[in-house]
Amino acid sequence: MRVWLAIAFLLAWCLVASRANGQDFQSWNEVDLTGSWKTIDVVVPLLARIDASGANPQLAATGITADFGLPWHLTLTGGYLYAKLPRSSLDVSVPLAAVAKSFRFGRFAIADRNRFEKLIGFGDSPVRYRNRILAERPLGTQARWRIFASDEVFFNLSARNWNQNRAQAGIGRRLSRRVFLDVFYLQRNIREGAPTTHALGTTLRIELKARLETPA
Hints:
Layout: H1 2-20, E1 24-37, E2 40-51, E3 59-70, E4 74-85, E5 90-105, E6 108-118, E7 127-139, E8 145-156, E9 161-176, E10 179-190, E11 197-209
Parallel strand pairs: 1-11
Antiparallel strand pairs: 1-2, 2-3, 3-4, 4-5, 5-6, 6-7, 7-8, 8-9, 9-10, 10-11
């Protein structure tokens, strides 16, 4: 109960602070449908970003990604996302590839992800490189709760300049054997002088099946 009161307080504080400073406040929400087959983990994300003061949604997206486990605690990811930006009347296709290295530091799990993506249909269809460091730690004897924090830097390879930075922190809970909920605060800074974005978001992950059966 205290955790949810803290989350409600954080939401109210972010809204008041962003309004007082003339900054942008948004709600970033995502539902991930996941499944596994052998060593491949498949994710179908459903995303929506809502602005507290503008026409909505700011962004709606879906697609599919697949993670392939490799030796030495490496994960290779390939995928495709399709996004609509109603305010700009844009439809954007995003093919992507990433590789992540995982390791442990005490009770913390650390992941360093390097992602490349092309934004087809957005501006001059730039290619972006994204580097994200994520740290998470389970809480309690049964690890039903976890805390996490990350920082992600975006670099526009087409223009050869830093594009934006996203810092994030949050808490997650296992709601049932196959359902997980994360609640987080995110701050986005963009190089071109756009106002700082403050976002409170949720990620609901649903495991459709522990292991998909191999077709006959």
